[in-house]
Amino acid sequence: MKELLDLVDRTGTTDSIAVEIDGKKTAVILLHTTGAKSGAERRTPVIRIERDGVYAIVASAGGADTNPSWYHNVKTNPDVVVQDRTEVSRFTAREVADDERARWWDEAVSTFPPYADYASQTTRTIPVLVLESRE
């Protein structure tokens, strides 16, 4: 993780940490959160899911049975910052459910097919959060 963050710091863009699967590159954004307990800034690369200028993030943890730590940070402190390529913007995250979650989940799997496999590896419903602009 540190190597990825250092690479973004050196290059100034998240393009430098795109994920490649089966020869297809998937864009990554850098999610800045505030630690739920520590209050410290945390930075986490996550898959870039975007539709019509709106972002979503998926708390997949690679199909683990527990949510990633960044999810707990976002639930406690929903105001986040996102770096997409070289642009930095402020958002408020909200977890989606029902039909809205289904639409975003389909978008997520279309963007990054391994999410479907991750969902089959766990009994939890993988959280999907939409990022609403604060600017």
What is the count of structural domains?
A: 1
Radius of gyration: 14 Å
* Average residue-wise pLDDT: 96
Work out the helicity level: 25-40%
Give the distance, in angstroms, between the N- and C-terminal Cα atoms: 29 Å
Largest sheet: number of strands, sense, barrel closure: 7 strands, antiparallel
Using the coordinates above, name the CATH class: Mainly Beta
**What is the string of SSEs from the N terminus onward?**
HEEEEEEHEEHHE
Question: Please, could you describe this protein's structure?
Answer:
- This protein has one domain (2-133): Electron Transport, Fmn-binding Protein, Chain A (Pnp Oxidase, Chain A, Roll), CATH 2.30.110.10.
- The protein contains four helices and nine strands.
- The chain has helices at residues 2-11, 69-76, 98-111, 114-120; strands spanning 19-21, 24-26, 28-34, 41-47, 49-51, 54-58, 79-84, 87-95, 128-133.
- β1 and β2 (24-26) form a beta hairpin.
- The radius of gyration is 14 Å and the shape is globular.
